């Protein structure tokens, strides 16, 4: 009897997904408790990143052990590194009526949909191809080869937009935030969630 | 390639559904074009009712002919009278990118779901059993037998809340309107609808 919802958010690189999530969690105007799932990864920690905040940084050996123990809701190998979502962590959030966002790609989304029947998936697209290029280049953190690799990855990701429940076009970040909040709010009005809140009332109405 | 959505709204008598719909259509703050479907009925016109506005009032003979010609998206016999929704009327609205609300009961909803794959159904409940009683009595339009019959009908209707996508508790009418608008807005963010709006952008992003 949880009132927490599981959300998947996917987008090609350079769509502004990270900023969107950051703003959603920072300016929590919604009355719901929302958390971003922290992934496990085997990739090297970048400067400024904090273990347990940005990722749980673990060894390949430990990651593979977790795979064998079936501890992941989803995992993937991207650019030679593993990334995964802990089943236990997600279930703990949901049990405590917390909405959880999974910031994962289409392959992860597919794995989650197979394991969780109640999941709301959202895809973000850039407003134009030029804007996508621009956003990928201004990040400036990465080498040109990485950028090109990301561009290719982006296109592969976009092919899967139709597998998602919702589609947001990130033209203006504040409009996109508005859309995202709207989706979260609507998910809380779904009959299964509302029943968990109002089950006493409903039972009374049916008994009378 | 429509951007119009089909909505079903059901509620037990005395839940305030009619006022809710009235306010939704009157104060159209949403940017979408929303219409309420006008049903065909064989029941007598009440004082103040207008043909083509409140209902299309037709004879039983004509109604039965429409049934035989498969012209109804749904129809039902309630308290000895027929009520039905014209397929053609609904399809015309949707073709013109207009959202249509069907104000029907659970039996009608069931028929529509079988014929239309893309339909969003919303159930409204009163905040308490006392409030339901109060609302049924203050209407004052009807004889006590009719009220009791409606009360029984209400309970039968409530049994079917779980068949609906969304559940709104009509405690305060303005909160219920807010919830309803939120659902309508979110439906327009569904991938299938968004694709119909942004298909050029998506095709461009995929081609690049």
Q: How would you describe the overall organization of this protein?
A:
The structure is a homodimer. Chain A is α/β, with parallel strands linked by helices and about 210 residues long. The first copy, chain A, has a domain at about 5-35 and about 100-205: P-loop containing nucleotide triphosphate hydrolases (Rossmann fold, 3-Layer(aba) Sandwich), CATH 3.40.50. Helix content of chain A is about 45%, strand content about 20%. In chain A, strands 2-7-1-8-9 form a five-stranded parallel beta sheet, sandwiched between helices. The interface of A and B includes residues 167 and 169 of A.
Shape-level CATH architecture of one domain in chain A: 3-Layer(aba) Sandwich
Largest interface: A-B, 35 and 35 residues
Percent strand of chain A equals 15-25%
**What is the CA–CA distance across the termini of chain A?**
23 Å
Name the assembly state.
homodimer
- Derived structural class of chain A: alpha/beta
CATH topology of one domain in chain A: Rossmann fold
pLDDT average of chain A, as an integer?
Answer: 91
- What topology, given as strand order, has the largest sheet of chain A? 2-7-1-8-9
**Relative helix content of chain A:** 40-55%
The radius of gyration of chain A is 18 Å
Q: How many helices of chain A? A: 8
- Give the overall shape of chain A: globular
Count the strands of chain A? 9
**Which stretches of chain A are low in confidence, meaning pLDDT under 50 for 5 or more residues running?**
none
**What's the helix-strand series of chain A?**
EHEEEHEEHEHEHHEHH
Please report the first level of CATH classification, the CATH class of one domain in chain A: Alpha Beta
């Amino acid at each position: 009897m949880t009132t927490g919802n599981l959300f998947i958010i996917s987008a090609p690189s350079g769509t502004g997904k990270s900023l969107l999530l950051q703003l959603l969690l920072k300016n929590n105007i919604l009355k719901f408790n929302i958390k971003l799932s922290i992934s496990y990864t085997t990739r090297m920690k970048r400067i400024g990143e904090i273990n347990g905040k940005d990722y749980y940084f673990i060894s390949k050996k430990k990651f593979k052990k977790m795979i064998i123990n079936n501890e992941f809701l989803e995992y993937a190998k991207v650019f030679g590194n593993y990334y995964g979502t802990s089943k236990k962590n997600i279930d703990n959030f949901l049990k405590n009526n917390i909405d959880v966002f999974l910031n994962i790609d289409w392959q992860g989304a597919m794995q989650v949909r197979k394991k969780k029947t109640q999941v709301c998936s959202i895809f973000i697209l850039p407003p134009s191809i030029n804007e996508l290029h621009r956003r990928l280049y201004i990040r400036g953190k990465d080498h040109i080869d990485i950028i090109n690799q990301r561009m290719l990855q982006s296109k592969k990701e976009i092919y899967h937009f139709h597998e998602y429940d919702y589609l947001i076009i990130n033209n203006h970040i504040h409009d996109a935030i508005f859309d995202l909040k709207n989706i979260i709010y609507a998910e809380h009005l779904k009959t299964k969630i509302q029943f968990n809140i109002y089950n006493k009332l409903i039972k009374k109405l049916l008994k009378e």
